[in-house]
Write a structure and sequence with these properties.
Blueprint: H1 3-9, H2 25-28, H3 36-49, H4 52-57, E1 75-87, E2 90-101, E3 104-117, E4 120-133
Antiparallel strand pairs: 1-2, 2-3, 3-4
């Protein structure tokens, strides 16, 4: 099995529970996201796989940076959607993304704004906050495995 086919068969990093090839890969290959949440999940997955071109393509032209360097991007570990809504051609997604921070864990929480133009959703902007996680031994592991922290990454 090649490394590429292994990635396509693994569970999608976006946390949907589906295989990557059936979840975010079709969007990464140019398919339109049906909702702002689907776009947010695919963008998170693009950060995991360091797909800068996809991130720029799905960023609205009014706020898109000229380039995106993902070399210093954290080691993303899990994504949790806290809230998602759509009103006409505008949408918001509130999420928390967890990443490894040295020998601990950090998080990025954001309320993201999206807009739909010509049938496609685009990321516009977000209000973010960051912090450090200190999970208890019996809490779910921040890595997203579903196991208790003490039985997984402690």
């Amino acid at each position: 099995m090649t490394a590429q086919s292994s990635i396509e068969q693994q569970r999608c990093p976006c946390g949907s529970g589906e295989a990557y090839h059936a979840c975010c890969r079709p969007l990464h290959q140019g398919g339109p996201a049906p909702t702002p949440e689907a776009l947010m999940r695919s963008r998170y997955c693009a950060f995991v796989f360091r797909l800068a071109d996809y991130l720029l393509e799905t960023w609205h032209q009014s706020t898109r940076p000229p380039f995106l360097d993902l070399e210093q991007s954290p080691d993303w570990s899990s994504l949790r959607i806290l809230e998602s809504s759509v009103r006409g051609d505008a949408g918001t997604v509130h999420f928390r993304a967890v990443y490894r921070l040295g020998d601990g864990w950090g998080y990025l929480e954001e309320v993201s704004n999206f807009i739909r133009e010509e049938g496609r959703w685009y990321y516009v902007s977000g209000e973010t906050s960051e912090g450090q996680l200190k999970p208890g031994r019996n809490e779910p592991c921040p890595c997203g495995s579903g196991k208790k922290y003490k039985a997984c990454c402690l």
